[in-house]
Amino acid sequence: MGRTSKDKRDVYYRLAKEKGWRARSAFKLLQLDEEFQLFKGVKRAVDLCAAPGSWSQVLSQKVGGQSSGQVVAVDLQAMAPLPGVIQIQGDITQLSTAKEIIQHFEGCPADLVVCDGAPDVTGLHDVDEYMQAQLLLAALNIATHVLKPGGCFVAKIFRGRDVTLLYSQLRIFFSSVLCAKPKSSRNSSIEAFAVCQGYDPPEGFIPDLTRPLMNHSYETDFNQLHGPARVIVPFVTCGDLSAYDSDRTYSLDLDNGSEYKYTPPTQPPIAPPYQEACRLKKNGQLAKEFLPQECSIDRVDKLSQPLAIHTLLAPKVEDNEINCSS
Amino acid sequence: MDAFGDYVWPRATSELILLPVTGLECVGDRLLAGEGPDLLVYNLDFGGHLRMVKRVQNLLGHYLIHGFRVQPEPKGDLDSEAMIAVFGSKGLRVVKISWGQSHLRELWRSGLWNMSDWIWDARWLEGNVALALGHNSVVLYDPVIGCMLQDVPCTDRCTLSSACLIGDTWKELTIVAGAVSNELLVWYPATALPDNKPVAPDRRVSGHVGVIFSMSYLESKGLLATASEDRSVRIWKVGDLRVPGGRVQNIGHCFGHSARVWQVKLLENYLISAGEDCVCLVWSHEGEILQAFRGHQGRGIRAIAAHERQTWVITGGDDSGIRLWHLVGRGYPGLGVSSLSFKSPSRPGALKAVTLAGSWRVLAVTDVGGLYLYDLEVKCWEQLLEDNRFQSYCLLEAAPGPEGFGLCALANGEGLVKVVPINTPTAAVDQNLFQGKVHSLSWALRGYEELLLLASGPGGVVACLEISAAPTGKAIFVKERCRYLLPPSKQRWHTCSAFLPPGDFLVCGDRRGSVLLFPARPCLFKKPGVGPKAITAAEAPQAGSSSGGSESVVTGLGPVSSLHSLHGKQGVTSVTCHGGYVYSTGRDGSYYQLFVHGGRLQPVLRQKACRGMNWIAGLRMAPDGSMVVLGFHANEFVVWSPRSHEKLHIVNCGGGHRSWAFSDTEAAMAFAYLKDGDVMLYRALGGCIRPNVILREGLHGREITCVKRVGTVTLGPEFEVPNLEHPDSLEPGSEGPGLIDIVITGSEDTTVCVLALPTTTGAAHALTAVCNHISSVRALAVWGVGTPGGPQDSHPGLTAQVVSAGGRAEMHCFSLMITPDASTPSRLACHIMHLSSHRLDEYWDRQRNRHRMIKVDPETRYMSLAICELDSDRPGLGPGPLVAAACSDGAVRLFLLQDSGRILHLLAETFHHKRCVLKVHSFTHEAPNQRRRLILCSAATDGSIAFWDLTTAMDRGSTTLEPPAHPGLPYQMGTPCLTVQAHSCGVNSLHTLPTPEGHHLVASGSEDGSLHVFTLAVKMPELEEADGEAELVPQLCVLDEYSVPCAHAAHVTGIKILSPKLMVSASIDQRLTFWRLGNGEPTFMNSTVYHVPDVADMDCWPVNPEFGHRCALAGQGLEVYNWYD
Ligand SMILES: C[S@@+](CC[C@H](N)C(=O)[O-])C[C@H]1O[C@@H](n2cnc3c(N)ncnc32)[C@H](O)[C@@H]1O
């Protein structure tokens, strides 16, 4: 498969590159805004889990109107700088990172908190769903500190087994909670976005960073698990009718008459965790297992195990198994 | 029925779960495995056999098991009883089990305790359990009464990705926490002040550049090992971690995995790691890789356990398979490569070719025509003969059979063949066969009765020599039996040969990639007009000009049947006959299963070997009935097992272009090759198979995308199936006549699997996998279900035709035949035959060339399939059924399945939806005094459902389909009869059912969690006498229509209307929900939480009145439910 194959299979990936967005997710935020006018009147915004930064790109363009707004972007991973965006590198579930973010908003609360956080999925569904929920709850905890009353919180949510527990939790803090799916998010993906408007914490609620917000459990309410009384919030599809269908495969020449030209990715990942392993693999320097080496037949018969000289540096072999994107 | 009764009935219960194996633990000679919420207990015997003793059901409710901790017994007596803490997600339960004398009983279980946070590790501390929780805190829990004794957080509050608890008392308890920031934090919960104020970390250790997924501490050596997202394993010298302030030193940084590392475990002498690359590596503590275990399929290995006394490693995978491996440190005993030290002043000349006669005798020839023997018992070289006629060019082949029949053959460039008895080389016989070069030599052996030697000469002529021995054994006789002629090609010689049992035919492969069938005894084909035609030199234009004359000289017999270029231009490398099939291998990286029917060769299935093995050299049948594939992977010779997906042997021989030979006997497997002017020999004692690797077969390695029930096989009482899963729960008489449901599944791992699900045992048997797809399989459809022998002469069993489709717009058609077979564990035998395939990109390429179209392949995926058959009760009528495909490029395509699926032809298409089409479904409509109608529904990502009338699509002169602009292009499907905007976004499930009133209930489920149900009426306009010719178009209309907006919290991926009053739906939110239909809006009855995440498809079927319904849910695993009607 050639390099254009991903362009064919994913029209938003391709459009993002052509439009200079760092990730296709930019369209998700734009389509959410189309539906909910998220950016209206927003001067200060927090972008949690921001790398590689396409949401920050959108926010820095749309926030603040005429006067310049303030965007604080946070991620575990390093992120290439963006004009007008304050960056913090850290784990949003970590107390110290949360404190650092809050500092920026002391006395002048934020209008909008967004979180597009997703763990590096392991493929074990229960672990992934849990980790994703922790990002949402950490983001919510930060939001309770920085959001002005009536402010808005948008967070990625995995619609798995326990998603209704998260909905019921969000409803405690916001007057309106909806589940929204931008057209640029695929049908085949379990991701959606909780759009929470009208920040309105319960009376007497005191934000507390030092205790993590835990997800609720089914213990208290059997109906939440098996019964009909689960909290399923209304679902909204965003993006206008003419929006491209993210599940459809388009041929490279789109109907709008523009001619296809391959565009390289806008912002390749900065120092991904697998970088060193890929470099070693590329150079054939991954450790290789012991293979029986040559020795004379008498030795084979005399020794219970053949002698071997172990080589740590294996010869160069063709690399066709793992796609190292570095 | 009252409301309460409604709430209870029908109640689905889980029968069978196949999920990734996420917990494994050895306790004495038992293996504990976690599968979903169930604990499986296996007995391991010394041979490494595994026998399931018991399934302890539903320990963790809707949580999945991630680990076990067995309470240490001070008296060390875990052989009769054990207290096991089972944990996973936020759940903990303790269960007491007695298992003396192989009889296993659950004595007691505690409540299921819910923690406030994820449990990363658990450890027994004097009757209580310490738990390391998700946000870096530790609790001490009394698991018997279920109360928390201590709860200590760390000052560094963050989410963890793993944790490891050390120590045997609360006082000395140490936690090593792996934070999402890649750091290790070491802290001591017992240092908390009485008010449980957070405790500060004692040490922080960094090094990994990705999160840490697993840790293991070896107290005896003071070592800690960590496995990370950065694909490396690190070994740390930590000393006694229970002592604060100690030094932590990174003493090893091991890169060996090619993907993330999920698990690590330190043993006294080894370090075991396993990960996403499906490889389990054995390292020394110094960081050298000693062994690599490959065999799991799919997304990785999730659990490892070790039995140190037996030196076994046991791994569990995402494929739900469990495997056992032998720890032997540096390689297997009795296995190795040796140089046979040929070079010597007493042996002049350079080696040209090598062969093996059995696994003990090596033969080699030199460029001075010397033939030498090396006997491994004697351990020295011996010259058998020297003949300078073989000095410039020489072929050497030993006869097959365990001892090589004691014969070998030489051939030279001048048409001379010499057959040499190895023990009495002086009795060698020469035959002058051709005027020119002998291109190839091969043997064919039938039992011990008939031995043939085939030699290819110029012009595609193959001489067939009959070899026999004198009763004294001192002399041999060589007689030319006949000559065959190969089809013309540039490199026109044969490469391999074998007898086709019972022995009337020879199967040969040639250099051109064709597989050919020749009569073994052409003298029997005396009658003119029967059998092969003798081809004369004049008729065969490129036949050898050897005879000189131009007169018609018979040069050889042509093949009676051939599969031209089956293996492509690189040639066929071997043919093997086994179990009624012929297997051929080639340098195209594939092997074929063929069979001979009515004197004709027919391909059954094409199979690929492991990745990178593009040169398959041969196949061997192991005594246990499994098969191994021999081949070359770059510079290595590899013996690969398709059953275990394991490379059993790897020899770095430099590739297959030099002379090499392979032999496999019960005593040893041997591989000889030439390297650096010497003979090298690799030998592995005990043959090429390693015993007992697979404890439990895996299913699919990746997400299952579709599931379809094919039918049921009923076994008579003579096939009584032992109930291994629930030996205790078996009530007398419940064995009954065995009903076995046959189900097929398709997966992202590119395979289609045929499964047997007996109703009595709650087990699943994977019967066969079809591996023809090059990309993921997403949809399946079945038609023509019947019994072997057909309706007239019906035998027990099941036959069906299957279409599978998926990524890269690829579609395959195959037939399935399942028959009772008492010799297999499933009591069934499954035969598969590949019938046809279709790829849209190939089709477009052809059309582009023909019509200068500029359509570029948009990498279309097929999302769903539906068989459209008007008269399924009258098969054979008409041109064959249609199969409709939902396509990701926005099209609905119709294919015609002709000749029972042997021809697959794109007939028509429509781009009506303009969006990715997600589902297709078809049904027939019957009304009194009217022609039966065939309706297709298609649904897309915009929530609309379109209905098409295909009744007359195949009729001559029909206007249902509009002819294409160019011949050869597909017809156009026109406009649908009706479209319904059922949802606001993608339709992920669709089903219909006729109602007693003559209408149809249509139900769909969507991405937004909503359900839509409506009644569809099909009306035919009054027939007008005047234009009887004109086609009648039915009018479809919606009668009553209901929506349930928030029926589920995620995509509804399965829906089935069970009766006009009852419907069941399944969703990614892991709920199986029953709905009552018929009084207005569908009403919720009850729902069950199931364990398979990401369910992509569901199928339900009634079994029988006693058993009720069965329902298979497929996603990241497979779960089967049943309920009584
Ligand atoms: C889907 S990406 C976000 C894409 C981003 N919105 C954009 O438009 O470019 C998810 C991000 O979550 C980040 N992430 C995951 N866990 C995190 C954590 N604990 N703290 C901070 N960021 C985290 C990952 O590093 C990743 O960059």
Automatic annotation (TrEMBL), chain A:
This is Putative tRNA (cytidine(32)/guanosine(34)-2'-O)-methyltransferase. Residues 21-199 form the Ribosomal RNA methyltransferase FtsJ domain. PANTHER family: RIBOSOMAL RNA METHYLTRANSFERASE (PTHR10920), TRNA (CYTIDINE(32)_GUANOSINE(34)-2'-O)-METHYLTRANSFERASE-RELATED (PTHR10920:SF12). Its EC number is 2.1.1.205. Belongs to the class I-like SAM-binding methyltransferase superfamily. RNA methyltransferase RlmE family. TRM7 subfamily. One of its GO terms (biological process) is tRNA methylation. S-adenosyl-L-methionine binds at G53, W55, D75, D91, D116. Keywords: Cytoplasm, Methyltransferase, S-adenosyl-L-methionine, Transferase, tRNA processing. One of its GO terms (molecular function) is tRNA (guanine) methyltransferase activity. GO terms for cellular component: cytoplasm; cytosol; nucleus. SUPFAM superfamilies: S-adenosyl-L-methionine-dependent methyltransferases. It catalyses: cytidine(32)/guanosine(34) in tRNA + 2 S-adenosyl-L-methionine = 2'-O-methylcytidine(32)/2'-O-methylguanosine(34) in tRNA + 2 S-adenosyl-L-homocysteine + 2 H(+). Methylates the 2'-O-ribose of nucleotides at positions 32 and 34 of the tRNA anticodon loop of substrate tRNAs. It is found in: Cytoplasm; Nucleus. HAMAP family: RNA_methyltr_E, RNA_methyltr_E_TRM7. The active site is at K156 (proton acceptor).
